Amino acid sequence: MIISLYIIFSALLGSFLASFIYRYVNKNIEADAYVESINIYTEPSFCPTCKTKIDWYHLIPVLSYLFLRGKAKCCGATISSKYFLTEILVISSFSLIFITNDSWGLILFKSFISLTLIFIALIDYQYKIIPLSSLLILFILALILSALEGLFMLPEIFVAIISGFLLLATRWLFFKLKGKEALGLGDVILFPILTLMIPMTLVPILLLTASLLGILEFFLSSKLKRDSEIAFGFHLAIASYLGLVNFYPILPLI
Ligand SMILES: [Zn+2]
After folding, report:
1. If you measure from the C-alpha of residue 75 to the centroid of ligand 1, how many angstroms do you get, rounded to a whole number?
2. Cα(89)–Cα(17) distance, integer angstroms
3. What are the tens digits of pLDDT across the range 41-89?
4. What is the pTM of this model?
5. Does the first or last residue of the chain, that is N or C, have fewer Cβ atoms within 10 Å of its Cβ?
6. Ligand 1: centre distance to CA 64 (Å)
7. Interval between CA 44 and ligand 1 midpoint (Å)
8. Residues facing residue 71 across a β-bridge
9. Cα(37) to centroid of ligand 1, in Å?
């Protein structure tokens, strides 16, 4: 019963996130004239193609997309599968957090963190940028989670600061040697925030996992002849999510 309610809750947030990403990207990155003219937080849902307001019964997460067979009711335009896939992604990520955590405080905070991570990952993957506002929200949520998990202690904070400087040094070194940016400033800010949410013994594993995922993408994209610029923030977000669902074994590194 509770899991069904939680899935409905996650589906609603998934639907919100899918529409918010569309609005955020079109206002701040793509500079779409219509989206720039509206208030992206209060404007009711509208069709991305003909801008007609959408009736509430066509806004049911996942089901509306399936029922309408991916076509907008107003103008017949194809609805991008990105909305549907984002909803599925949020539902799956929330469900996994629900299964792998036992206290409601942890489940709720980790769910909101995973929502922010999905926002960061999807925007970074496509546009290679991490919005500063999302980093600020993540920072606040990470501080609260760190306190809830009893990790908000001086050595942990010290490790977070060192991690930031380590990435900053890597960025500087790469720039000196290769003359181009290998790491964005967004990644340099994101990494220390993520370290706040895990025990410091797992920080090297977080970095290693994100790097391995990045290397994997690099080889896959050069095979597929796609542009080989790696969105490291995307991989950091995935590696951090694995920590939220307690994927990493606590290694006896101490
Ligand atoms: Zn339409």
Report:
1. 4
2. 11
3. 999 999 999 999 999 999 999 999 999 999 999 999 999 999 999 999 9
4. 0.94
5. N
6. 14
7. 14
8. 78
9. 18
